[in-house]
Amino acid sequence: MRSSTRRRALPGAPRRRTVLVSAVAAAAALTLTACGADDGGKPVADVSGGTAAKPIVKLDNPMEKPDLVLTDTNGKKYDLLEKTKGHPTLIYFGYTNCPDVCPLSMANIAVAVKQLPKAEQDDLRVVFVTSDPERDTSAALKKWLGGINADFTGLTGDFDTIQAGARSVNIGIEKPVKKKNGDVVSTHGAQVLMASPKDDRIHWLGMQEATSDDYTKAIPKIIKGQNP
């Protein structure tokens, strides 16, 4: 599976530690969410750090989108910067076996997207980058996203490449760990990166607490490059 990145990864992010994205929005710290199943089969969502004061947070310092070239759900090379250039873009790092946070976040976005006019749906790019590429093959991503919104793009590839891309936008992800009971736990940031079509930079974060109503209100403005 071919994947590459064109810039050097930022220094390693510390484990399970809050990463501040803005001096003003200090309460909107990026958190790491451990998703898996406990011995009783119940979902595990161990969230560290604080929560956002608002469900959609504006960054004081916009970020460049992650420079990633990975493999999409059709098994083809996908250059994220090239494919999303000039388009309003939402990016989320997660994995298909997540029992709670990932499917809920993507479903909330899907509900909001379905309410957009067709032209705006076609213009919007929603990209799901797996944090568990060993299990999330192109076929697995295609099947999973097909149950949410078949127009969403799923990306897989080399874990180190994906991790470096996530760290470049202050999203922490860690290699999935298999527990003694066979459960697999994947730890990843739970924020939705939201980029403006005007300058292709990430200006906003959809926090874990954001609902479908929050995205329904925010996405039409983001499509126009406006603050939600």
UniProtKB/TrEMBL annotation:
Question: Is Disulfide bond tagged as a keyword?
Answer: yes
Query: What SUPFAM superfamilies is this protein classified in?
Result: Thioredoxin-like
Superkingdom of origin organism: Bacteria
Disulphide bond pairs: C98-C102
What stretches pass through the bilayer? none
Fetch the InterPro entries from UniProt: SCO1/SenC, Thioredoxin-like_sf, Thioredoxin_domain
Ranges for domain Thioredoxin: 59-210
Q: Which residues does the record give as Cu cation binding sites?
A: C98, C102, H188
A Pfam family that this protein carries is SCO1-SenC
For this chain, the family text in UniProt reads: Belongs to the SCO1/2 family.
Protein's UniProt name? SCO family protein
